[in-house]
Amino acid sequence: MRISTQMIHDGGLNAIQRQQSELFKLQQQIGSGRRILTPSDDPVASSRAVVVSQAQATAQQHARNTGAAKDYLSAIESAVAELGAIVVGAKTLAIAGGNPTQSDADRATLAQDLRGKFQQLMAQANTQDGSGSYLFSGYAETTQPFSGSLGAVVYNGDAGEREVQVSDSRKMPVTLNGASLFQSIKNGNGVFATSAAASNTGAGVISGGRVLNPPAWNGDDYEIRFSSAATYDVVNTTTATTVSSANAYASGGAIAFSGVQVEITGAPQAGDVFTLQPSTNQSVFETFNNLIKTLESPVTGAPAQAQLRNGLNRALGDLDRVLDQTLSARTLVGARQSELDSVSFSNEDYLLRRSVELGELINLDYAKATSDLSSQLITLEAAQRSYVKITRLSLFDLI
Amino acid sequence: MGDSLIGTGLSGLRAAQIGLATTGHNISNALTPGYSRQDLVQAANLPRFTGSGYIGQGTSVTTIRRNFDEVVESQLRHAQSQSSRYDTQFESIKRIDDLLADPKAGLSPVIDAFFGAVQDLATRPADGATRQSLISASQALVARFRDVDNQLAQARTEVNDRIRSSVELINGYSEQIGQLNQQIALASGNGSGDQVPNDLLDQRDAAMRELAKEVNISVTKRADGGIDVFSGRGQALVTGNRAYRLAASPGAFDSRDVELSLQTDSASVRIRATDFSGGNLAGYVAFRDESLTLTENSIGRLASALTQSFNRQHRLGLDRDGLAGGDFLGVSEPQALPSSRNSGSATLNVSIADIGQVTASNYELKFDGANYQLKRLTDGTTQSFASLPQTVDGLTIALGAGAPASADVFEIRPTRSAVSTMATLVTDPNKIAAGLTSAAGDNRNALALAQVQNLGLLDGGRTNLQGAYAQMVGQIGNRTLESKLASEANSNIYDATLQKQQSIAGVNLDEEAANLIRYQQAYQAASKVIGIAQTLFDEILRITR
C-alpha cells in the first residue's frame, strides 16, 4: 500500500496527540483525587453518587437534630430534678409541722418557708432554655407557662409536645407539657383521697387508706358517718345507699369496704363525717397552697389538733404523688435519652458506610493511577522519538 | 535517415520536461490539502510507414492524469459527515455534562441545604435565626436553579448561532461549487476528452469535502463535467452552475429556535431539521432538539415538582400571625405556543394536573378541522381527541380564547421554562407556616415540609426529587458517553478511509525524488539523442565540404 508523506506526518502526530490527551486526563484525575471527572466517565456511578451524597447529607442533618434533641432533654431533666428537690424540702417542712412541740408561731415560720419554696416552684415551672424559649409551655414557647399568685395559678401555654426528626422514621418528643407535668397529678393515694369534714367536733384522724382489691373498688364517693362516739355507718353518697351501719369503732382499726381500707384514730364524736372520694387532678401549686393554709391555721383544742393532723396527712400524701410524677417524668426523659444514644450510634455507623460507598464510587485508586502515569509517559516518549526518527528519513538527503 | 531522430529526441525531451514539471508540481503541493498527485500519461507516437517497416516517431504526453478514485472520495465524504456530526454532538453535550459534573455546582447539594434549613427550623421553631436561614437557603436554591437555567439558555442561543453559521458556510461552499462547475466546464472544453483541469477538480473536491463536514451530501455527475449536489431528503443544493441557498429563519413556534428552508426558484421549501443525517448541522440539531431540550425539561420538571409539593404542604400550616401559609416558591406555568403559520386565532391553556405523571417531553397538538391530535415528541406516540379540555400525561390541555382553524399546530412545553421566573415568594420570616397553630414552638408543619424531600413526587410516585436528578445526571452522562464513543468510532473510520484515499492520491516525497531522478535521466538521455543526431549531421556536412 502506498503511504503518502502527509500520512506519515499526520499519523505520527496523531499518535503523539492521543498519548498527550490520555496523559492530560490522568493528570486531572491525580490532581483532583477523583476517578470520575465528568458523569460521562461512568454514568452509572455518577448517578449513584448523587443519591449517596444526599443520604450522607440527610444523615448529617439527623446528627445535628439529635444533638439539639439531647440538649433539650437534658434541660428538662435538670428542671424536673430541681422540682423533685423542692418537693422533698416541702415534705420536710410538713413533717416538722406535725411535731407536737410546735406552736402557732413556729408553724407560721414553716409556712413562711413554704411560701419561699412556692416562689422557687413557680420559677422552676417557668424555666427557659438558652435561647429564651420556655420549656413547659407546649408549643407556645414564647409565652410564660404559669402566672398568678399562690392560690390563683393559671396555665397560659397549650397542650403540645414538640417533636424533632432524629432519623428517617423517628420523631422524638423533646418537651414535657407543663399542664400535664404540674397540674395533672392525682391527689390522695392515687386512687382515692380521704378528708375530715371541717365541722367535725371530735378529734378523729383519718389515714390516707389503700386499695385492697382493685376490681372491687367502684369509684364512688363514700362517707363514714359517726352516729355516736363508738359507732359509724358507711354510706355510698353517689348511689345514696348505706353499705354498712352501726359498725363498732376502734381507734386505729381497719375500716374496709368496696375493696378499700382506711383507718381512723383518735376520738371522733357523734355527727363527725369523714369522706372518701376518687382521686382528681390537683396541681402542685394547689397542694402547696393547701399545706400553707393548714400550717397557718391557729390550733387550740383537740378538734383543731385533729384538723391539723388531717391536713398534714393529706398534704404529705399529695406531695408524695408529686414526687411520683417527677419520677415518672425522669424515667420518661431517661428512656428518650437512651433511645437518642442508640439513634446517634446507628446514625454514625450509617454515615460511615455512606462515606465509604461514596469513596469507592468516585475516588481515584492512586496506586493504579501512578502506575498508569508512568506507562503513559513511556508511551508518549516512544511516540515522540519514533516520529522524529521516521520523518528524518528522506531520499532527498541522498541525491 | 536522421530526419526524424532530432524530432524523436525532442519528443523525448519534451516528455521528460513535462515529467519534471509535473514532479515539481507534486513536490510543491505535497502538503496542499485536497491535492491529488498527478502523473503523465505517455503514449508512443504513431509510426511512419517506410520500406523498412514502421519506424517509431517518439513519444508524446496525452494527458496529465489526476490519481483519483470517485468511490473512495465518496466514502471519505460520508465518513467526514458522520465524524463531524458525532464530534459536534459530543462537544456540545459535553458542556452540559461538565455543568452537572461538579458536586458543588450541581443541584443536589443546594436541595440538601434547603431541606437542611427546613429541618433546622423544625428543630428550633421559635428561633428567629432559623426562620431567616430558611429564606436565605431558599433564595440560594432558586439562584442555583436559575443559574443552571441561564447556562442552558446560553447553550441554546449558541447552538442556534452555530446552526446559522453552518448554514452560511453551506451556502458559501455551494456557491463555490457552482462557480467551479462553470470554470471546469469551460476549461474542459479546451482540450480533448481526457484533458481535464486537474487542479480545478481538486478545488471542487476540496469544497465538497468541506461541505460534507457541514452537511451530508450525495453527488451525481453531469455530462459537461459539472456535478449536482443533493442533501437531506434529496433537495438540491447545487445543479450545474446554479447554487440554491439554504436559509435559517426564526422558528414557527419560538422565534429564537432556528428552522431551515431551501430557496428554490419558485418558493421557499421548509426542511425538517431531522432530514439531515450527517455533518455539523445534523450534530447541532440533534443536540438542540434532543439532549438540550431533555435537560431543560428535566430541570424544569424538578423545579415544578419541588414547588408544587412544598407549596401544597406550606398552605396546610399557619404562620406566626395565625394566617394560613401562602405559596412559598413560584415557578412559571407550562407554555402552549401557537405556530406563526396558524390561520386560526386559538390559544391554549395548559396546566399541570399531576406532576407525578408529567414527562420530560414536549408535545405537538394538531387540529384537523374536527379532531385534535396530540403527539409526544420524544417517542412519537399520538392520541386523538374530539374535543378539549383533556388530561394527558399529567397535563390538562384546554382551549383558551379564540377558535382554531384546520391545520393549526401548537407546541406544548410543560416544564421547559419553569425555572425562568422561579422565585422565593415568602420574604417575611413570620410568614413561614411552620406550625398547625400560630404558637412559636409549633413545628408540626415544618416537620411535614422537611419530609417533602423524601416523597415520591415523580414518575408516578416512584422517584423523589434527588432521585430524579440522579437519573438525569446518569442520562446525560450516558448520552455524552455514547456520543464520545460514536465520535471515536467514526473518527477511526474516517482515518482508515483517509488512508485509503491518501494511498491513491497522496504525494510521497521519496517517490517524487525517485521520479526526479528518472525524468532527469530521461532528459539527459533524450538530449544525448539530439546531440548524436547533430553529430551525425555534422559528419554529413564534413563530407560535402
Mean of all residue-level pLDDT scores of chain B: 91
Find the count of extended strands of chain B (DSSP E, 2+ residues).
21
Helix and strand succession of chain B?
HEEEEHHHHEEEEEEEHEEEEEEEEEEHHH
Radius of gyration of chain B: 36 Å
How does the helix and strand content of chain B classify structurally?
Answer: alpha+beta
Q: Helix content range of the residues of chain A, please?
A: 40-55%
- Shape by Cα distribution of chain A: rod-shaped
User: Which quaternary structure do these chains form?
Assistant: heterodimer
How would you characterize the largest beta sheet of chain A? 5 strands, antiparallel
SSE arrangement:
The complex is a heterodimer of chains A (about 400) and B (about 550).
Chain A: H1 5-32, H2 43-97, H3 104-125, E1 146-149, E2 152-155, E3 163-165, E4 171-173, H4 178-183, E5 192-196, E6 203-206, E7 210-211, E8 222-226, E9 231-236, E10 241-248, E11 254-257, E12 260-267, E13 273-278, H5 284-296, H6 301-362, H7 366-392
Helix pairs in contact in A: 1-7, 2-3, 2-6, 3-5, 5-6
Chain B: H1 3-28, E1 38-44, E2 48-50, E3 53-55, E4 59-66, H2 70-101, H3 108-123, H4 128-190, H5 198-214, E5 217-221, E6 227-231, E7 235-239, E8 242-243, E9 245-250, E10 258-263, E11 268-271, H6 279-314, E12 329-330, E13 335-338, E14 348-352, E15 363-367, E16 372-376, E17 382-385, E18 390-392, E19 395-399, E20 408-413, E21 423-424, H7 444-451, H8 465-505, H9 509-544
Antiparallel strand pairs in B: 1-4, 2-3, 5-6, 6-7, 7-8, 9-10, 10-11, 12-21, 13-20, 14-19, 15-16, 15-20, 16-17, 18-19
Helix pairs in contact in B: 1-9, 2-4, 2-5, 2-6, 2-8, 3-4, 3-7, 4-5, 4-6, 5-6, 6-8
